[in-house]
Write a structure and sequence with these properties.
Shape: elongated
Helix content: under 10%
Number of domains: 1
Distance between the termini: 31 Å
Strand content: over 45%
Structural class: mainly beta
Number of strands: 5
Largest sheet: 3 strands, antiparallel
Length: 62
């Protein structure tokens, strides 16, 4: 399994947080993960091609 740590700012509290992303499946993955600081839900979407992260987005979950 190929994994990377992705660091970014929470769209709610703007604190810098990180998540481990699994790069073993090509394509786009979308899921909801709670912020480790404010515990609010973040909609995470990322794209993988050949074990490489080619796109990443995070936004507030409605």
């Amino acid at each position: 399994m190929e994994e990377i740590e992705k660091k970014f700012k929470c769209p709610y509290c703007l604190e810098k947080i990180s998540m481990i992303l699994d790069l073993s499946e090509n394509g786009t993955q979308t899921y909801i993960e709670d912020c480790e600081v404010c515990c609010r839900p973040i909609l995470v979407t990322f794209s993988v091609e050949g074990y490489r992260l080619i796109g990443f987005d995070r936004q507030r979950s409605s």
